[in-house]
Design goal:
alpha+beta; globular; Trna Endonuclease, Chain: A, domain 1; 3-stranded antiparallel sheet; pPIWI_RE_REase; REase associating with pPIWI RE domain-containing protein; binds zinc ion; 3 domains; single chain; 15 strands
């Protein structure tokens, strides 16, 4: 059971309270009530007296009011607030789906709801991984890998879709079937039209503004903007990716695909120097593998974490088994997190103990390194 149980309870309670399907805040979720009672005792005279007062407090940086006697999880940036515009903040969304969903719900049933969506993708992924590693399936490996890549790309590229589109794409799937894929989507029940943003995916109305899941990095959503589009349910009911899958698979997958496409371009331009660029090799043993003409291979793993503290425990030696060995490995941080935080990379570099073959770089630094390496192995032209 985690030390930060009071914080976790508050976050779970707030999620239930601000759930967009909920018509009214009454009755307050039980967890939310319990936590506010605890906090009121600790905060004493400064404790809010109304629901609105509590909500205002939750819009403040948590370090400015959280009682010193209760633990705060180190994975939550204490300079952030729990809410932004009455919705869970980006930091709260990330904590909810990356920390809470990993907790074994048998330890405490309060974690059950959040674990469900996560298990959905995880169990399919583990089955595919087992099937891939199974020696008796050796001849099927290529197909398993191909179906996994098709699924993952579809989830990233099609946050809005229809049952027919899923059927067309997955009708012949042996390892990833049509019903498997449907499980990752839910019907759009909140109107005839679903709005979406090319940068952050499905949007919903908050008053008269459209908002997405990452309010702090993507909050410009006027209906007439070029990156905003809408899909109508008139001809065929539309489906929207489930929030947990959106947060954990779809949104972080965008920088992975971006990098893969950039590397793919280089391979097309210089096929004699860049032999192969493979996405999620060995059913996601790591994100991208590239092989150069001089026989050298690099392993690349993209880590899409806004908060470097949450990323630190994930930085381990990249798995080189199953014929996926490499000379150099790169943890790649999307530019979007580094642009506004000059301390991000130095903090990671000074707090990890990775082998010398491992590098931590931004997306643009990685592409520069690839270009430099391609240049170094290019044979010099003979002088006439
Ligand atoms: Zn957006």
């Amino acid at each position: 059971m985690p030390q930060t149980i009071l914080f976790d309870k508050l976050l779970l309670g707030l999620y239930e309270l601000t759930n967009k399907q909920r018509q009214s805040p009454y009755p307050y979720p039980v967890l939310f009530q319990q936590v506010c009672q605890h906090l009121a005792l600790q905060l004493s005279t400064s404790a809010p007296r109304t629901l609105q007062g509590w909500l205002n407090l939750f819009h403040q940086p948590i370090q400015s009011w959280w009682p010193a006697s209760y633990a705060l999880p180190k994975e939550f940036a204490s300079t952030d607030s729990l809410l932004i515009h009455n919705r869970p903040s980006d930091e709260a969304v990330a904590y909810y789906y990356s920390v809470l969903s990993e907790i074994d719900a048998t330890a405490s049933p309060m974690y059950t709801t959040v674990a469900v969506e996560n298990r959905l993708f995880r169990s399919l992924y583990l089955n595919l991984k087992d099937a891939y590693r199974d020696e008796s399936n050796a001849e099927q490996r290529e197909q398993i890998q191909q179906e996994y890549v098709q699924l993952r790309r579809f989830l990233i590229e099609s946050p809005i879709t229809t049952t027919n589109a899923i059927r067309r794409k997955f009708w012949s799937g042996k390892y990833v079937t049509f019903p498997n894929v449907c499980d990752f989507y839910e019907p759009c029940n909140d109107g005839q039209t679903q709005w979406s943003c090319h940068h952050c995916g499905p949007l919903h109305w908050e008053g008269n503004a459209l908002v997405g899941i990452r309010q702090s990095i993507c909050n410009y959503h006027p209906v007439e903007a070029e990156h905003i589009w809408q899909e109508s349910s008139e001809r065929e009911p539309i489906l929207r990716i489930r929030t947990g899958i959106h947060v954990r698979t779809c949104f972080p997958g965008l920088p992975e695909l971006f990098l893969f496409n950039q590397l793919g371009k280089r391979q097309q331009e210089q096929p004699s120097l860049l032999k192969a660029v493979e996405l999620w090799p060995g059913v996601d043993q790591y994100d991208i593998r590239i092989e150069f003409a001089n026989g050298m291979a690099w392993a690349i793993d993209v880590k899409d974490y806004q908060n470097p503290q949450r990323l630190l425990p994930e930085l381990k030696t990249i798995d080189d088994r199953n014929g996926l060995d490499y000379r150099s490995a790169f943890y790649v941080i999307p530019n979007r997190w580094i642009e506004n935080n000059p301390h991000y990379l130095p903090l990671l570099k000074s707090n990890t103990d990775l082998p010398a073959s491992h590098n931590i770089v931004s997306s643009s630094q990685l592409l520069d390194r690839v270009d430099l390496h391609l240049k170094s192995i290019r044979k010099p032209r003979r002088k006439p």
